[in-house]
């Protein structure tokens, strides 16, 4: 490319009567370049090539509106990519993320503690509160520790019978009962901690009976450390940003309020086609694929009729505490077909005394 100075030199040499060939030799360019410049009558100006319209340009208004409606929440780029993909967007994720980056609210520093567990060993459980007041909406969230497969049930209250029914639905949906379930200090589980000593808690009436009925142990987070159930906490954030906020904002734009029926219908589809088949950020595997392995380690789901009293062990099944020999002898005074008469025991005791003598 010839610089502005070269073009000026060409004009000066021409005014001094130099031939085109001589000028070309002096400035070090082709004769045709000298001829073309002199014919143009001036120094050529650089013209910026017209920029092609980006593939994302037709969707920028839609993206700004979606994030504005969601504010102060945030809709992830992966969700918006699916939305505008259905509208004809054929560009890549990099330009979409670059466009969304300045629109994102500042994130809070909220670390999550996670740890790995064996297949079938643990499931983490939590309530998510979406709405209070006269039209409440909550979500029961359960995430298996090994596979990260999750189940969600939207409900309108957090009573213990609702909690148990949600557990039953999750056991069936995920294919079995793990050995332990991890909770924070939700009042539908524990009423008072360490009431009888360290680790001896007072649980909500009925829930321990259901736990025994299903065969899982109740594990509680340490006080003020509910974030130790990091797997389900992280899933709660994913549920909020990738499912709930996009759905609510769409319904809001249409003038419709989210209800429990719509939420459950949509979340079941979302779990099946998005959440449980995505590549998990920690395991780098799909939860649905790891769930196949984990199901082999889960306990079978016992039938449930929704009756707490039916889950309570009968008095006959309760273990009999140790008793003194006098009480045992008193119970044996009435012989049964399976018991020898009391005289037999008296003879044995007499022989035992003779041996000791």
Short description:
By secondary structure, the chain is of the alpha/beta class. It has 14 helices and 7 strands.
Structural description of this entry:
By secondary structure, the chain is α/β, with parallel strands linked by helices. It has three domains: 4-40; 57-103; 122-308, 2-Layer Sandwich (Nucleotidyltransferase, domain 5), CATH 3.30.420. The chain has helices at 4-15, 20-27, 31-40, 60-70, 77-85, 93-100, 160-174, 207-214, 230-253, 260-273, 287-295, 308-311, 325-331, 342-356; strands at residues 122-131, 137-144, 150-155, 180-183, 190-192, 202-203, 217-220. A hairpin with a 5-residue loop joins strand 1 and strand 2. The radius of gyration is 38 Å and the shape is elongated.
Strand content: 5-15%
Mean pLDDT metric: 80
> Quick one: CATH class of the largest domain?
Alpha Beta
Uncertain residue ranges: 314-342
Number of strands: 7
Task: Summarize the main sheet.
Answer: 5 strands, mixed
What is the CATH topology of the largest domain?
Nucleotidyltransferase, domain 5
Number of structural domains: 3
Query: How many alpha or pi helices?
Result: 14
Helix content: 40-55%
Morphology: elongated
CATH architecture group name of the largest domain = 2-Layer Sandwich
Instruction: Please state the CA-atom Rg, rounded to the nearest Å.
Output: 38 Å
Provide the structure class: alpha/beta
